[in-house]
Write a structure and sequence with these properties.
Elements lengths: L1 H34 L3 H4 L1 H6 L18 H12 L2 H14 L2 H26 L2 E2 L5 E2 L2 H6 L6 H38 L4 H23 L2 H30 L4 H13 L1 H5 L7 H16 L6 H5 L7 H30 L12 H11 L1 H35 L3 H17 L3 H25 L1 H12 L2 H9 L2
Antiparallel strand pairs: 1-2
Length: about 475
């Protein structure tokens, strides 16, 4: 049965990622770059100044909304997760060093894609019966016209299911593995003991997530705005420590990345079985898994923001992809490559690669403990963000009353994810990631003119830009 599931999801993944997602990212990213006059580059400094430069100024949100900081940290909480650690490790192991280059390319295009998703999410958002702002791809797809409601519902259904994979099982599976590795680094435990640990972790996580979800978007936002900055800085500092401890390998690491991007076998040899296709596909897969650009998911969190304009909030989309992929994923990749640890190419790893890399400086026990803490923080915050996304999808399909039922199912799946084999979990996550992106790109293509119009109006209006400067 497992062999059949692996074969089926593998074939479906190839179709969704190689023949659908890859062309959509490339064509969509280039189209939106042209139509917005390369907003991710031409206004990059402006975006950083008006996002990260003002993120920690105190502000209050109105009824049914969250602050821009809470919206972006909720989105970052869902974005910065195991994809940054385990996902990047898998990109290197399955796609070679060159996958990191394609990870970066996807991120540069991903900045304008996520910017557009957030802009459209604000433009087409609505108030629900509680007075809360709700939005996301299902709302802007429906905004194309009355005949597109069915595709909006398809997106909501696929995204709601995908949340159980990318935002739940893969995350808690990584938490379980890292905690188990940390415990076994200090103690000798037999297989039955490890099984008990997995169940305890699953039940504990399910209870904690359920408790936070009861507080809704505002509680998730408050948890995220405290957790995300701390965990991101903590992780980057340790990675920098490892990288600079192997400073002599930094130049060679970049050489491997750029050479293998176009000729993997020239670096790895033919025996690795890794060709350009693998480098390209795995770089794109893990970029999407990490920064979510093209999936449309983060736009659901941004829709709840108290913001002066759609473009103002869209700037946070540029910031998110930059931090998530260009900064944090790069830290993981360079830490692994610079450390010189052995990589079993062609075999899907968990957290062992980054653990081995950190261990070259800090030793096995401290490395296992660090990776466990990092993965717990990253993955737990991701679970919270995706629980919100799934709840909004259920609400769109079945109404507000469906939220509690969805959240109950979400908590149950946490336990399943903690005790399931890693390959099945990641294959399922990959499959639905690729599928949910397709209707989202239809919306982005159809409404690219709206994004272009709003962007042009905003940056040609001194009053709007002054409001960006004044708004905190």
């Amino acid at each position: 049965m497992q062999a059949f599931i692996d074969f089926f999801t593998g074939a479906l993944n190839d179709f969704a990622w190689l023949y659908m997602f890859l062309p959509c990212v490339m064509v969509g990213g280039i189209l939106l770059t042209v139509r917005t006059k390369a907003v991710q580059f031409s206004h990059f400094g402006y975006a950083m100044k008006n996002t990260v430069g003002k993120m920690f100024k105190k502000t209050e949100a109105g009824k049914g909304a969250v602050t821009p900081l809470q919206a972006v940290t909720t989105a970052l909480a869902a974005t910065v997760g195991t994809g940054n650690i385990v996902g990047t490790s898998q990109a290197i192991a399955l796609g070679g060093y060159g996958a990191v280059f394609w990870l970066w390319v996807a991120a540069l295009l991903g900045m304008v894609i996520k910017y557009s998703e957030v802009v459209l999410s604000i433009q087409y958002r609505q108030r629900d019966e509680k007075g809360d702002w709700v939005g996301g791809p299902m709302y802007y797809i429906a905004g194309i016209g009355p005949k597109w409601k069915w595709l909006a519902m398809v997106y909501a259904a696929l995204a709601g299911i995908a949340c159980f994979g990318i935002g739940n099982m893969s995350q808690v599976n990584a938490i379980t593995g890292s905690i188990t590795n940390a415990i076994t680094a200090f103690f000798t435990i037999n297989d039955s003991g490890i099984t008990v640990i997995h169940w305890v972790i699953g039940l504990s996580l399910a209870a904690l997530v359920a408790l936070i979800l009861l507080g809704g978007i505002k509680r998730i936002g408050k948890v995220a705005e405290k957790l995300v900055p701390i965990m991101s800085v903590f992780y980057v500092l340790v990675c920098l420590g490892v990288i600079f401890s192997h400073a002599g390998n930094i130049g060679g690491a970049f050489a491997k990345i750029f050479t293998a991007a176009f000729s993997p076998r020239a670096v790895l040899g033919a025996a690795s079985g890794i060709a350009l296709k693998e480098a390209l596909v795995w770089g794109l897969r893990r970029s999407a898994f990490s920064n979510e650009a093209g999936l449309g998911s983060a736009a659901i969190a941004h829709a709840a923001a108290e913001t002066p304009s759609a473009v103002h909030q869209g700037l946070y989309g540029i910031f998110e992809v930059f931090v998530d992929t260009i900064v944090i994923c790069s830290m993981t990749a360079l830490t692994i490559i610079c450390s010189g640890v052995d990589i079993n190419f062609g075999v899907k790893p968990g957290s062992e690669l980054i653990t081995a890399a950190v261990a070259t400086i800090f030793g096995d026990k401290l490395a296992a403990l660090f990776v466990a803490v990092a993965l717990i923080l990253f993955a737990f915050s991701t679970v919270l963000g995706w629980a919100l996304y799934g709840s909004r999808c259920a609400q769109y399909l079945f109404g507000t009353k469906a939220i509690k039922f969805y959240q109950a199912a979400f908590a149950i799946v946490i336990v399943i994810g903690c005790v399931s084999p890693i390959d099945i979990v990641w294959n399922i996550a990959d499959t639905f990631n690729g599928l949910m992106a397709i209707p989202n790109f239809v919306g982005l293509f159809a409404l690219s003119g709206v994004v272009a119009k709003l962007t042009k109006e905003h940056f040609s209006d001194p009053a709007a830009m002054l409001e960006d400067e004044m708004y905190t």
